Amino acid sequence: MVANRHDDSVDITLRSYETAPQRYADQSAAPSLALCAFLDLLADTVGFGRVLEVGSGPGMDAAYLEARGLDVSRTDATPAFVEMMRAAGHKARLLDIRTADLGGPWDAVLAQAVLLHLDRAQFADALQRIRQAVMDGGVLAFTVKEGDGDAWSEAKLDLPRHFTYWRERSLHDVLAQTRWAAMCIDHIAGHLEPWLFVMARTD
What we know:
Order of helices and strands: HHHEHEHEEHEEEHEE
Shape: globular
CATH superfamily: Vaccinia Virus protein VP39
Helix content: 25-40%
Mean pLDDT: 95
Number of domains: 1
CATH topology: Rossmann fold
Strand order of the largest sheet: 3-2-1-4-5-9-8
Low-confidence stretches: 1-6
CATH class: Alpha Beta
């Protein structure tokens, strides 16, 4: 992968999604059994509440939660994904977790395979901003890749995407610093790399 060292890694990643949204959608499998269980836990925890989904992508996870009776606000930082969801008849809006007004208060926020693109400082800031956008007792559900450091990958899209890896202990630390209480952090074996599925409540 070749990129200008002064470019923001998230912006480079977003450009890759914008360049090949249909390729990403075509290569994105339906939610795995583990992800379905995670989304079911979120639905069971929230009931019929309002959920802000950060980074809806093609919208498969939102569709799953909507089938469970949740009111999901679909968003993405990639205009092509927003247009894809709108073309399929769904309401969707642009939202960049780094800068956007998150609105609310929400019963829950879902960020499935999204926050892993942020560096550690951006990640902590995002958790703090989400904390301010949910009601008391609100829930945050997110997934990140398990490991150390960070890396670029061209898997799936043949275009550069940047990932920050996390360990359970580090996640506990940053959750506590941003006033979240971890409900569960599950270790999930992924197709290529292991994942951490995280659910937390406001502290």
